């Protein structure tokens, strides 16, 4: 009624009395359509400019100087935590004064156009606030006089009981066996809440000991994560209740005394259910989780009893994480770490689940959060600081994260650590995300339109009106539900110092991965326990150090991991160095022993080689004589071969001349023959068929057919002649028979045996050759086919007479070739004989060379053996004294190798822990550790120390030349700086370390910078890019965030 009548409303009441929920529900669901609500949440750092910019961004210009909502709309700005802005110097709260200016004057001044007043119409304010105290401030009455007050009082226990028993009763309704425990369990929870709220009050050391009704509701929220149907009896229900009470209340308790007190409180409550505490909590820790099932779609929040299987599941999840990410994690999952993973996983799986993890660096906050997020199937998001990372980059990162959570409906774990707080405004934006799910003025206009469009189906499914307020509210709800911020929201999980069993488990895991350690089980256990003793001793000494010298020194799990890492790296290196030295000494001793044996062997060898040398000389002379005789025989054979070669060459030339003469004669006839054959090839079957089909063949055709028949031996047919009673030869009919198969006929002409034509055929064909009508030119006039045949007949005739003239030449050629073959065989035999002789000579030559080589080798061996004998006698005599010293050195190195583990562990403790301590404290702790070494059977030398174990005398001398003082403390500091895994921070009031570093790194182009330098970042960047050493002088208690990134050796 007040809001619809345009009256400002202020709701006042303690935390968790329903102010925000009541107003939000009314403004979003039960207002007329023209009313549009915008939400704004104040914090301690909210400024007037932020408030003015947020409100101005929602308004449109009506006319000159007048601004308001769109026409026929009315804006209500709901401001939560109204009295949170901190007071300025003069006691005012600028955001409150800005709102008061609107209520008094109807607007405020434009910051861009100085002096211009902006009238703002059709808006109203609904606010909520708690009573002053706990960070809230009283607000001026000049502002509150404009409001109508609605008071929200704290809820009575009866109301709490009614609400939570209704919720729990609905959950237990399906299990009649435990339904009667409903009201008793609610009463016990309310009693625990009331007791802890009144007994454990916040103090400066425990400022987070604040409990509200939200904590009470979170106990039941956690109980409702389980399935009631899985609760078989009262004990299981009480186990779940005990676990959720511990997670909500006990996890924020920082000391063992408070946790024991809380356990006693729960024990009293459990005993009222007629159950013993040991029955409900048979062993600690009591753990619940929904990650033990492999079925991602059917997660069951249940009691985890099998701790070994739990550890195996988490190790498998860690392996999966390492396979799916580029940044690998190598964690030792001892029980304390597993408890933290279970707690973080429980928080992340809850709606609006956020966590504040408090603990020192290296205690596993980030690593365990990443693992828990991966187990829940969430994306883990962290900002990446860079050189110029500022407000703009921050806003872009969180905007992208929120859009992904809101539009893509993805679950995201937002991991934010204190070292990333580059600007205080970062925390202001995180506060807005946690409280409202929105950051003012974050989205551009196009991004807002994108959000409204994407949320329409969601709002329609909810059955709400598609107003801008409802669309943005649906988006913000989704963002708040999907983003789980791991930094600063209840429930709290305090990371305590690692317990002794955790320290021992981590040490054992590291030591088991060192095969070169080669220690017995007793020694391995002693080394692991010694690591724990070292860590605990330093922690105690830090308190003494603070009490006596007022100097702070912090011992963290990171120091412990550094100890193990240094031991892992240095132990293998040192052992290899000692073993190499021992091997060199052993090699020297072995050489001396083998040299004495070699002397006697060489004397025997020398006596054996002398007769062999004489025998080799004789054998060489005999071989040389044989070679001379065989060489004479070879020369005679070579002359005989040369004579035979001359004869064969002459006969080959004679045969060649005969063959050439015969070929010239053949070349005269072959062109005509080739032309005739080519002419025959040009004929086809039709040409031959045409001749055969002639009924009255011309005279030329008859002549051709007669000649072919004579050449092929075809007998003529006798027919009556012109004169009565006479018979003449007729070749036409037999000739036509030849032409019956044209292809076969032409083939017979091609294959005609031209080299063996009978003389009677030649005599019969001669008249045709002489006949003028039997010329190709004459025949061509009557038949193409007969022309080619005519050419063939004439070519055969010519070839016959040429072949007759060539035949004697062929016979002469054959005889010459046969004679040449005989001569060639004689030549080949002579060559084989020569080759055999020369092969024999070559074999003798090789034998001779072998004899010479053998003789030379024996001679050289004799000379070398005599020289070695002389040198060996001198060596054995000269190293007689060194042999004794080397034996002692080998024994000492054996002793060092067998005891190197303890020495390196002591040195690693120096490097990881003792840098900040004075010399007296270092000596006292080293003495105490040596006693522990003996008690725990840790192998070590008599009086180990950092300098003797890891110091290099040559390098130490060069340090001292560069200005390092010669006292043991300074030398120890130099070794610590050399081997430390962190960048060294020198407390150097006299400037000794400064001088030493500048002298030592002068040749390496040392970059010396100060935080106050204008070009600080440029110089630091150059040193990183070019790998130059960098000396940062005059460092105070704090460093820039960009420097911090380098100091923790993070990629930039």
From TrEMBL:
Residues 957-1040 form the Dynein heavy chain ATP-binding dynein motor region domain. It comes from the Eukaryota. Keywords: ATP-binding, Cell projection, Cilium, Coiled coil, Cytoplasm, Cytoskeleton, Dynein, Microtubule, Motor protein, Nucleotide-binding. It is found in: Cytoplasm, Cytoskeleton, Cilium axoneme. One of its GO terms (molecular function) is dynein intermediate chain binding. GO terms for cellular component: axoneme; dynein complex; microtubule. Residues 813-861 form a coiled coil. Residues 584-928 form the Dynein heavy chain coiled coil stalk domain. InterPro entries: AAA_9, DHC, DYNC2H1-like_lid, Dynein_HC_stalk, Dynein_heavy_chain_D4_dom, P-loop_NTPase. Residues 171-259 form the Dynein 2 heavy chain 1 cytoplasmic ATPase lid domain. Its main location: cytoplasm. It holds the Pfam family AAA_9. Signal peptide: none annotated. Residues 329-569 form the Dynein heavy chain AAA module D4 domain. GO terms for biological process: microtubule-based movement. The keyword Amino-acid biosynthesis does not apply. Belongs to the dynein heavy chain family. This is Dynein heavy chain 1. It comes from Larimichthys crocea (Large yellow croaker).
């Amino acid at each position: 009624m007040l809001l619809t009548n345009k009256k400002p409303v202020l709701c006042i009441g303690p935390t968790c009395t329903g102010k925000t929920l009541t107003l939000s529900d009314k403004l979003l669901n039960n207002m007329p359509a023209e009313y549009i609500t915008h939400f704004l949440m104040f914090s301690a750092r909210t400024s007037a400019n932020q408030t003015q910019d947020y409100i101005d961004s929602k308004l449109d210009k009506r006319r000159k100087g007048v601004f308001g909502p769109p026409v026929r709309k009315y804006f209500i700005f709901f401001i939560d935590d109204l009295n949170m802005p901190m007071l300025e110097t003069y006691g005012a709260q600028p955001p409150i004064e800005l709102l008061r200016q609107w209520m008094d004057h109807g607007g405020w001044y434009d910051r861009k156009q100085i002096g211009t007043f902006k009238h703002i119409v059709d808006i109203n304010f609904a606010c909520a606030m708690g009573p002053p105290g706990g960070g809230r401030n009283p607000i001026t009455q000049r502002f509150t006089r404009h409001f109508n007050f609605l008071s929200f009082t704290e809820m009575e226990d009866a109301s709490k009981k009614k609400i939570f028993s209704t919720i729990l009763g609905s959950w237990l309704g399906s299990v009649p066996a435990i339904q009667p425990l409903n009201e008793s369990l609610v009463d016990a929870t309310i009693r625990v809440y009331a007791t802890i709220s009144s007994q454990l009050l916040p103090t400066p050391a425990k400022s987070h000991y604040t409990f509200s009704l939200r904590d009470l509701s979170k106990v039941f929220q956690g109980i409702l994560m389980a399935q009631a149907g899985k609760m078989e009896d009262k004990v299981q229900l009480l186990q779940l209740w005990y676990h959720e009470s511990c997670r909500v209340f006990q996890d924020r308790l920082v000391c063992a005394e408070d946790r024991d007190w809380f356990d006693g409180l729960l024990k009293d409550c459990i005993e009222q259910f007629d159950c013993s505490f040991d029955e409900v909590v048979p062993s600690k820790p009591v753990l619940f989780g929904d990650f033990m099932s492999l079925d991602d779609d059917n997660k069951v929040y249940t009691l985890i009893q099998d701790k070994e299987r739990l550890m195996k599941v988490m190790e498998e999840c860690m392996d999966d994480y390492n396979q799916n990410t580029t940044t690998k994690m190598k964690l030792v999952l001892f029980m304390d770490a597993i408890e933290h993973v279970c707690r973080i996983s429980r928080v992340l799986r809850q709606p609006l689940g956020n966590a504040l993890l408090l603990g020192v660096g290296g205690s596993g906050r980030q690593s365990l959060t990443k693992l828990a997020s991966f187990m829940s199937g969430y994306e883990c998001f962290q900002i990446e600081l860079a050189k110029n990372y500022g407000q703009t980059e921050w806003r872009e990162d969180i905007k992208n994260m929120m859009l992904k959570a809101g539009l893509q409906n993805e679950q995201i774990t937002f991991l934010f650590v204190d070292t990333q707080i580059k600007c205080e405004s970062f925390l202001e934006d995180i506060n807005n995300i946690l409280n409202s799910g929105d950051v003012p003025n974050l989205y551009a206009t196009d991004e807002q339109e994108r959000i409204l469009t994407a949320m329409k189906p969601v709002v329609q499914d909810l059955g709400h009106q598609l107003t801008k307020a409802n669309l943005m509210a649906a988006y913000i709800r989704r963002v708040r539900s999907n983003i789980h911020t791991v930094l600063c929201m209840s429930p709290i999980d305090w990371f305590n110092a690692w317990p002794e069993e955790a320290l021992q488990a981590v040490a054992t895991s590291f030591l088991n991965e060192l095969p070169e350690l080669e220690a017995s089980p007793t020694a391995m256990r002693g080394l692991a326990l010694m690591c724990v003793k070292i860590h605990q001793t330093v922690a105690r000494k830090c308190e003494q150090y603070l009490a006596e010298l007022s100097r702070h020194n912090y011992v963290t799990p990171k120091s412990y991991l550094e100890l193990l890492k240094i031991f892992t790296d240095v132990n293998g290196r040192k052992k290899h160095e000692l073993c190499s030295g021992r091997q060199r000494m052993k090699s020297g001793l072995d050489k001396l022993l083998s040299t004495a044996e070699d002397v006697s062997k060489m004397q025997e060898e020398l006596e054996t080689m002398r007769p062999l040398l004489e025998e080799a000389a004789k054998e060489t002379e005999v071989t040389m004589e044989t070679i001379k005789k065989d060489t004479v025989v070879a020369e005679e054979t070579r002359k005989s071969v040369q004579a035979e070669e001359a004869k064969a060459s002459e006969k080959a030339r004679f045969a060649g001349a005969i063959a050439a003469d015969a070929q010239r004669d053949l070349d005269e006839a072959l062109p005509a023959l080739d032309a005739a054959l080519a002419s025959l090839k040009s004929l086809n079957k039709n040409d031959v068929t045409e001749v055969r089909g002639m009924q009255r063949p011309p005279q030329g055709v008859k002549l051709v057919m007669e000649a072919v028949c004579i050449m092929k031996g075809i007998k003529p047919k006798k027919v009556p002649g012109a004169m009565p009673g006479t018979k003449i030869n007729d070749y036409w009919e037999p000739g036509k028979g030849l032409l019956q198969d044209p292809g076969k006929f032409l083939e017979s002409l091609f294959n005609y045996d031209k080299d063996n034509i009978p003389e009677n055929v030649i005599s019969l064909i001669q008249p045709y050759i002489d006949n003028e009508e039997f010329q190709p030119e004459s025949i061509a006039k009557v038949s193409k086919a007969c022309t080619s045949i005519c050419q063939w007949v004439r070519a055969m005739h010519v070839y016959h007479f040429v072949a007759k003239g060539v035949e004697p030449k062929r016979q002469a050629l054959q005889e010459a070739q046969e004679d040449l073959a005989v001569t060639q065989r004689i030549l080949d035999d002579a060559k084989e004989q020569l080759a055999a002789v020369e092969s024999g000579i070559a074999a003798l030559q090789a034998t001779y060379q072998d004899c010479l080589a053998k003789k030379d080798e024996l001679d050289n061996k004799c000379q070398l053996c005599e020289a070695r004998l002389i040198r060996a006698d001198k060596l054995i005599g000269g190293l007689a004294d060194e042999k004794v010293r080397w034996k002692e050195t080998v024994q000492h190195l054996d002793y060092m190798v067998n005891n190197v583990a303890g020495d390196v562990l002591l040195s690693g403790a120096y490097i990881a822990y003792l840098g900040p301590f004075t010399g007296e404290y270092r000596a006292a702790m080293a003495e105490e550790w040596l006693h522990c070494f003996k008690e725990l059977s840790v192998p070590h030398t008599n009086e180990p120390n950092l300098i003797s174990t890891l110091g290099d005398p040559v390098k130490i001398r060069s340090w001292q030349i560069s200005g390092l003082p010669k006292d043991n403390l300074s030398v120890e500091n130099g070794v610590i700086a050399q081997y430390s895994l962190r960048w060294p921070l020198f407390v150097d009031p006299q400037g000794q370390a400064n001088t030493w570093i500048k002298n030592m790194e002068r040749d390496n182009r040392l970059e010396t910078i100060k935080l106050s330098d204008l070009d600080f970042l440029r110089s630091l960047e150059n040193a990183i890019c070019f790998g130059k050493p960098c000396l940062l002088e005059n460092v105070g208690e704090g460093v820039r965030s960009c420097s911090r990134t380098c100091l923790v050796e993070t990629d930039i």
